User: Fold this.
Amino acid sequence: MSHHTPTASSTPAKPLRRDAQRNRDAIVAAARTAFSAQGLDASLEGIAREAGVAIGTLYRHFPTRLALVETLFDAKYTELLAAAEEAAAMDDAWEGFCSYLEKLCRLQACDRAFNGLVSARLPLHVAGREMYERAKELCIQVMHNAQEQGVLRADVTAQDIAYVIWSQAGIIQATRTVAPQAWRRHLHLMLDAFRAEGAHPLPEPPLTSEQVDQTLTTLECTDEGCREAS
Assistant:
């Protein structure tokens, strides 16, 4: 999975006035629809317009694009963490390995912004960082379980899981409107390649953690949009 760096810890927010809470809820609802359909660079002006508020009101609730992204995807990271915990506890380690990757790719497939988010190196607040680190630990445990049972090839590393995320991101985007379930065929082709049975020596060594970090798509989230950093 991709590497994230934490931002400053957030402090508990005071309860909002009823009208302010109504505006915030409308912004989040409009943003969820826009980000899901358009990706991380969805227009904030368009989100404010759909929510029926001024752009200044949006910025009062969410000073940066990333703050809005975090609010939308905390729930999905929580869902991914729950899937990782369930997979790590399965007696059948191969089933656990497959179920975790299926859940990860399904979350990518159902939301364009989440698809971009898991493929990027973006800062996360402390709570998000902790969820990410815990999911990463559990993913490694799922892999080790499968390797100990002899069902996952022994030369697979945690960095190889990045190949699943990166390749699925492109396939999901390319086939979204013509064959929205095509990602599942590709995933299961990859899962067969991960099986220990019939494995052949690989011609190249695995990526290091540093190489994965260097390879990640780095996005800058600005008021104008999320774009690839130079």
